[in-house]
């Protein structure tokens, strides 16, 4: 099958690139400058994606060097399990520590992931029924700010609930998802990046944005986080409303794709469909659509996911550059801040490999990240 060959070649390219680059990486890649990785020592919000990418490379290649490097990298995230100052603990600990536990059985990784879940639930605001996105717990700024991205951090809580038998973790994840479901999707299925609440009363204030074009636009990576996150929450709960929301977001995103199947950075920016691209949004969207196809039995979602993965593999890899240290090019981190435009991003590499392996090696991906449905 032509598609399978294209995807296998892209995964092989990623493994070759990682084999050359990974041994020299001692911190956490956050993005590229002139095609070379720039690093964070503590992992910022993206620290889980580097070990996660190495795990995907190990699953694809069987090369134990990647397993060793994945574990070495994940260990450096250990201090972050106590970090109550961010909602991104799922991004930090699921592809790194939860996956490490699932693939090695070493209980150290499980224990650290559970500690991270304990840190995350401290960000829950019971009056507004949401997990606060940004800022330390005692910082009044952004205290009522909720972002669509947090949908992807809820699976860490679902994991903690299953492992401990304590209902509080999944209860908080479900309450947050219900709140997000109420305030983010518009009638047409598009979403804003941000929604603000009064942190004291929990009363809704309204939509906003940081990384999208405007509060009324639709930042494509946020739309992808929402689509994938609501699908995951359906799989963890069986709640049909979450599945319906995932489909609503998916249908808008699919309808907004251009013929080249690489999302623009914001589906409603004035220059689209001719605006700059965000290949990372495409990789995340493809994973979410594959998940949604499995959850619904709808082959049209899978067909679009395969077209996106094929497009990324054919038009967005760094193959033409001898300098490049990343796998995926043509990503956009934060367009309004003019920060990271036409660069590589660690989550693009991770989700491209996850998406490809969901197609080529679903049993292996299931071993790593748990594709089951309750």
Q: What's a quick, concise take on this entry?
A:
The chain contains 13 helices and nine strands. The protein has helices at 2-21, 49-61, 64-75, 89-104, 107-121, 154-164, 168-183, 220-237, 240-256, 279-296, 299-315, 346-360, 362-369; strands spanning 28-33, 36-40, 124-125, 130-131, 145-147, 194-197, 204-208, 331-334, 339-343. Helix 1 crosses helix 2.
Structure write-up:
This protein has 374 residues and is mainly alpha-helical. The chain is 52% helix and 10% strand. The chain has 13 helices and nine strands. It has a three-stranded antiparallel beta sheet, with no helix packed on it. A two-stranded antiparallel sheet has the order 1-2. Strand 8 and strand 9 form a beta hairpin. Helix 2 (49-61) packs parallel to helix 4. It is globular. The model has no long low-confidence stretch (mean pLDDT 98).
* Number of helices, where a helix is a run of at least 4 consecutive DSSP H or I residues: 13
The total strand number stands at 9
- Structural class of the secondary structure composition? mainly alpha
Determine Rg (CA atoms, Å).
19 Å
Low-confidence stretches: none
Shape: globular
- Please estimate the helix content: 40-55%
What is the average per-residue confidence, as pLDDT, rounded to a whole number? 98
